[in-house]
Design a protein that fits this description.
With about 130 residues, the protein is α+β, with helices and mostly antiparallel strands. It has 5 helices and 4 strands, in the order H-H-H-E-H-E-H-E-E. Helix 1 packs parallel to helix 3 and helix 3 packs parallel to helix 4.
Length: about 130
Amino acid sequence: SLNALENVMLPLELAGAADARAKSRDIIDKVGLGQRWSHYPAQLSGGEKQRVALARAFATEPAVLFADEPTGNLDSRTGEKIMQLMFDLNRSSSTTLVLVTHDSGLAERCDRILSLDAGKLVSDVRAAA
């Protein structure tokens, strides 16, 4: 029942942010949906819905952001665009991104890879500095 802008504004309003609308419009623009802010979920593509979700997640500037298979329901081209956007937003914020994925190519783009098997840590690899 909320449009894209209202979806992004909701957690900011709940946190008491006085500038929730302006901040939400800014991040909606950053994710490339400046012209679609008034659209409802049924009017958005899967990739656009993911961009709204990213905008909402990063809007509150969380210390840690967990993303569980963020591209799992997207085609590979759209998924790549969404991941690039997620990494760009992550670099421009002070948020730690914890990404859960089965995609080894995506994992290799991260600074650290923790691999689990049956709930047990089997490797811990850090990217070369």
